[in-house]
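Exercise 7.
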Amino acid sequence: MGIRTGSQYIEGLKFRQPEIWLSGRRVTNVYDEVVFKQPIHEIAKLYDMQHDLAFQDKITHLCEETGDRVNNAFLVPKNAEDLKARRELFEAYARATFGLMGRTPDFLNIVVTSLYSNSDFLAKYNSDWATNIQNYYRHVRDNDLFLTHAIINPQNDRSKTSHEQQDMYTHLGAVEETPEGLIVRGAKMLATLAPITDEVIIYSFPGFKPGDERYALAFAIPIDTPGLRILCREPMQDGTRNVADHPLASRFEEMDALLVFNDVLVPWNRVFLYNNVEAANLLYPKTGIGQQPSHQTGVRGLVKLQFATEVAVRLADSIGVDVYLNVQNDLGELIQSVESIRALLKVAEQEYETLPSGDVVPAYIPIETIRGLLPTLYPRAIEVMQIIGAGGLLMSPTEADLTHPELALDMERYYGGRKGVSGTDRIHLFKLAWDLCGEAFGQRLLQYERYYTGDPIRKRAIFYNNYKKLHAFAMVDEALDVSNGASEPKIMK
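Solution. The predicted structure, written as tokens, is:
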């Protein structure tokens, strides 16, 4: 089939009946659920972009295997041009959502593509695993599916490994093998957008220890598989908010969920890894599923940071506070943050690395630097926005106040900004900023960015240790050689 339309994506949602729990009730109609409806339409717009001639050639390509047009997320990158084609997809989707939706369809389709193109790693352990991921890649590509994933264990007792928990099946693990497939039980989080996706793929970060064999799993199943329960967090918006009052929260709320597997049957042809601690610990470094999606993460993070920075700049300009040196300093800091991430992305793409499979990936050091910086740069942008907006962020009236004829004069007189900024413009701008920096929606975005790629301290420690292995820090030795008189200074004639 190849690329889907937004309406085809929506029809798929209407066809399925996953077990979804939201605010103490079972959701029986995903599409008509008010909390989900607008985010569904935002995702549908991304699918429609594939058919828009203004985007089609930039974000899709003709599949050599099928002849159908498919999304660039399914492109196996072999050179710099392929990385550029992927970046154009990431940027188009990020700009369409202002970088606020972290799990658009391109993200996990990149993961599946990377597993497919590096399936030789899985073949070393089990040839069926390699065949399964190859077939699954084609299934996702050819049907243009939207995936969620859950790769983190519930936060129970983090001081103990999975097999040391009080309940053997608190963390997702294998129960038994059957002729039809593997029975699994337990839970995983944090499945973003799970209620409005087609399928879920399960895998885990490295860190398995002997005894954790039953938890070393990788597989994919439809989101409506019997026994799979989706427990949604409390919504950040009720689905009925006025778009003018909440221009972001009303449109881009990404529901997060805990996935509970109640003796779920995973068919053998959907199992990609099982009962092998070594393979599970090497899955990330050997298949590129860390570096490849981090390209998407970097582009999306850049757009999100740029958006927050632009809001902060416009906020300051609207009330004339950007004439003050301290405000200029803060805004200059944010702009330099944006430009730093942009530069790192270009370096990562231009200095790409080649995997044994022949795939190219963005260079490790700059792409990991981006992943290390975003969890601090984005919160800083939000902090600057809060400081600039100050008490004004707490004082915005509603759209109903703004449009009431009896209040029109007050709205203009007391809510207007500097010369040239009307009360209407200033109110709308401050509401946009409040959605980002004050509302529950914005606070979720903040927390999400802090932990988007996992524990930032642990990630930076891993980065340091890898960097240390790759660098000899030779300038220190050169400096010591000079100080010890090992070399004489050269005199230029």
